[in-house]
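thread: overnight batch results

M.L. [08:02]
morning all. the overnight job finished for the chain we discussed friday. pasting input first so we're all looking at the same thing
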Amino acid sequence: MPLLRLDYFQKKFPELKDLLPKFDSYLETKLSEAREKAAKDFDIVPAQLAKKLQIKEGLALALLMLAEEKGIVESAYQAFCPTTDNFLGEYKELKDVPKHIECPYHDREISHDSDHYFVDVVFHFAPQFFEEKEALAVHS
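M.L. [08:03]
and the structure it wrote out:
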């Protein structure tokens, strides 16, 4: 059962008709992995999608934004330490990412300003979508 309303996307973007079923299959796989881990906030990373579908990362991001438009996924912003690559925090909106972040991964107290940490966009299954699919899985 497709996650996406492929007919809607295929009508809106006919040039993507061959790619959309692959994207849908990828999301199905990720949804299964999220269910196995009982993790509603399971990361869907544009770079990983791009690699899997052998497309450019910008197109992968665009596909995920289409899925976000349909309420399947939601975007979030994750900050990482530039020295250790460790996760520093996740934020719903880019504007919510603080100008300074205290980094707990260094021997001394260190604060990264926005020029000295990096931020990646990730996607998670939207809570209402995840719960709806969970309910369907239980009843099938």
